[in-house]
Specification:
The complex is a heterodimer of chains A (about 130) and B (about 300). Chain A has 5 helices and 2 strands; from the N terminus they run αααββαα. Chain A is mainly alpha-helical. Chain A folds into 2 domains: about 60 residues, Winged helix-like DNA-binding domain superfamily/Winged helix DNA-binding domain (Arc Repressor Mutant, subunit A), CATH 1.10.10; about 40 residues, no CATH class. Chain A has a two-stranded antiparallel sheet with strand order 1-2. The chains are: A mainly alpha (about 130), B mainly alpha (about 300).
Chain lengths: ~130, ~300
């Protein structure tokens, strides 16, 4: 599976890590994305060919789909497994005691003062 | 016996009190390792000390008493009976707490396995198509990263890399295992609960520092945390206010990375070894007492 990515250009990112990043990029938007758009999003001097290879691999795994009706060559993420996961996650969250609360979550809740401070940090003002 | 049997208890208190200071002055990676090791050692020593105290009740057991009066011997009583009874009670409570922690850990693992069902092996990222912003690492071999589509959509491209690098750090350094170990230690020895709190905060700091290193930018890392925290912070959202305060993590990223002070880490470890020595010494004393009573 690994080893087909040209080395060097991909910074120290392994093929598996790059797959995650491409998949994350596709999930971050409702639009379909072309390999060139994904390449621009990922940055880091990633070669177009590398992006293409990764997309093909994700497609072989059934994780992304080629856009049939819309733009030629554009991709979108496959939703089936993700919807199942979402259902399982909400079931786990709704059932108390929450098993996920015991995990290392990326972020946790905020107090109102903290919220204001963070908005200032991001330069959003009091939106 | 009468003094050193109590050293694990005292040192548990000390470790609990010192752990926030350690978190403030030491890089998260060595701090987590040293605190976890010290907590596990201390919890073991405390439990053993309680066993020793409870064992002194043996001289109240009717067959032992009958046997001793037959031989006309005076049984040693190294600690007051009340202390031994309290020790036995605390021990029973500790056993219940540890069992509960083990069960919770098992339930979490089961729930996580279910989340990754339907996703083929060989993919690191598992996306949940959910409007709830959420992200966490799913430990295992290999581990996986579960992120919801809402969380991915909220972040900018560089910030998504921070998120992935952060969760990868949790998996690569087995943070779930370390936190589980310190959770069990705190269940066995409630005086260590502050250490557990500190360690679960510090593994987040550790992953933040790692992510900042991978992305090569502390500012972007701080902004990723801020944005993720803000989108997650909505009424009816699954995240609750907790001790893993995200603003403290952001503040830490806005300053220089904390130093790897080996002497501090070594001192914390030594603090974990001391109670073990105390307990071992007390064991020797008790065996000696019992031996002299029997012969």
């Amino acid at each position: 599976m690994a080893g087909t990515t040209p080395r060097g250009r991909a910074e120290r990112r392994s093929p598996g890590e790059l797959e995650s990043e491409v998949l994350a990029t596709l999930w971050a938007t409702d639009r379909t994305l072309t390999p060139a758009e994904i390449q621009a999003d990922l940055g880091g001097g990633l070669a177009y060919n590398t992006v293409h290879t990764i997309l093909r691999r994700l497609h072989d795994k059934g994780l992304v789909l080629r856009d049939a009706e819309g733009r030629r060559g554009a991709y979108r993420p496959a939703k089936n497994a993700a919807q199942m996961t979402a259902e399982a996650m909400h079931q786990a969250l709704d059932r108390g005691p929450d098993p996920i609360a015991a995990l290392q979550q990326f972020v946790t809740g905020l107090s109102p003062q903290e919220e204001t401070a963070l908005r200032e940090l991001l330069g959003e003002g009091d939106a | 016996m009468t003094i050193d049997v109590y050293t694990p208890l005292l040192l548990s208190l000390l470790l609990g009190a010192l752990s926030p200071q350690v978190a403030r002055h030491l890089a998260p990676a060595p701090a987590v390792r040293a605190l976890t090791a010290a907590a596990v050692l201390t919890a073991g020593a405390t439990t053993w000390a309680l066993v020793l105290l409870a064992v002194t009740l043996v001289d109240e057991a009717p067959p032992v008493v009958a046997d001793a009066s037959e031989d006309g011997k005076v049984l040693p009583e190294p600690v007051p009976e009340a202390v031994a009874v309290v020790a036995l009670t605390v021990l029973a409570v500790a056993v219940c707490r540890v069992l509960r922690a083990v069960r919770t850990g098992r339930a979490t693992r089961r729930a996580l396995r279910r989340l990754c069902e339907g996703h083929r092996a060989g993919t690191e990222l598992v996306v949940a198509a959910s409007p709830t912003p959420q992200a966490f690492a799913v430990p295992g071999t290999p581990g996986r990263i579960l992120v919801t589509s809402a969380m991915l959509a909220a972040l900018r491209p560089a910030e998504r890399r921070v998120l992935l690098a952060h969760e990868r750090a949790h998996l690569a350094h087995r943070h779930a295992l370390l936190v589980h170990a310190v959770t069990l230690a705190a269940a066995a020895d409630p005086l260590l609960v502050p250490v557990r709190t500190t360690v679960s905060y510090l593994v987040e700091r550790w992953a933040d520092e790692q992510a900042a290193g991978v992305v090569g930018d502390r500012r972007t890392t701080a902004r990723a945390l801020a944005r993720a925290a803000l989108v997650s912070h909505r009424p009816g959202c699954a995240l609750r206010f907790s001790d893993r305060a995200v603003t403290r993590r952001i503040a830490a990223l806005q300053t220089a990375p904390p130093p790897h002070l080996r002497p501090v880490a070594a001192a914390v470890l030594a603090l974990g070894v001391l109670p073990a020595l105390g307990a071992a010494d007390a064991t020797g004393d008790l065996l000696h007492l019992l031996g002299s009573a029997v012969t």
